[in-house]
Amino acid sequence: MYNFAVEGVQFRATTLFSLQRRRCSIHNGRGVQHRRRIQLRIVEINALLLGLDEHPKVELVPHEWMESLSGMRAAVTNDFKIIYLNDNWIDYSVKEFTYSLSHEMRHVWQKKMKPDLIASHRTLDLCRNVEEYSLQPSEVDAHAWAYIMVCKLTSEAVPLNIMLGEKVAARVEKRINDIYDEMHEYGGIVEHLGRS
């Protein structure tokens, strides 16, 4: 059964993310190559669903650098042309790196479609704590989009309360519903990205 369709192209989670059932180790060459293809596919699907003509490249950066940013797994550059992914990404589950890449792709979309939203975005070092950072409208929106993409592409849910805390999770859940309503209202390329 297909999970959703984009511009007439049917996508099925079982074909996109068969790595989880592969017997080969993800640390051997074949597993790494397969994960890189999945990574690229996640970025391409996000670009298509978000109506982006082009998408940023994904580059690996040392995990020490990413961990210095409060354990972030991914970040997009200020020019929105590169998504940096923690070089420990090979140890992430497909769900985890789908979430991280989808979150950053939503920031790219915000820059193009909602520049006022991203213009008010403050970096973590300018916020009192991670909760304040995560409650910014741009972050709430990116978390909501990432949640939707994980549910649709991996057929798994993300425990928002555990990951984000109750206050942030409540705002993200409201934004998830708003995004579904917006997609329904505007129609467009998303034909079957229904509510989970």
Task: Give a nutshell description of this structure.
This protein has one domain (4-186). 54% of the residues lie in helices and 10% in strands.
Structural account:
- By secondary structure, the chain is mainly alpha-helical.
- The chain has one domain (4-186).
- Helices cover 54% and strands 10% of the residues.
- The protein contains 9 helices and 5 strands, in the order E-E-H-H-E-H-E-E-H-H-H-H-H-H.
- The chain has helices at 13-16, 29-50, 63-67, 94-113, 115-119, 130-134, 137-154, 160-164, 166-186; strands at 4-6, 9-11, 57-61, 74-76, 82-86.
- It has a 3-stranded mixed β-sheet.
- A hairpin with a 2-residue loop joins strand 1 (4-6) and strand 2.
- Helix 2 (29-50) packs parallel to helix 4, helix 4 crosses helix 7 and helix 7 (137-154) packs across helix 9.
- The longest helix is centred in the N-terminal third of the chain and has 22 residues, at 29-50.
- The model is unreliable at 1-28 and 187-192 (pLDDT under 50).
Rg result: 16 Å
Number of domains: 1
List SSEs in N-to-C order.
EEHHEHEEHHHHHH
| Oligomeric state of the chains in view | single chain
Annotate the secondary structure layout.
Layout: E1 4-6, E2 9-11, H1 13-16, H2 29-50, E3 57-61, H3 63-67, E4 74-76, E5 82-86, H4 94-113, H5 115-119, H6 130-134, H7 137-154, H8 160-164, H9 166-186
Parallel strand pairs: 3-5
Antiparallel strand pairs: 1-2, 4-5
Helix pairs in contact: 2-4, 4-7, 7-9
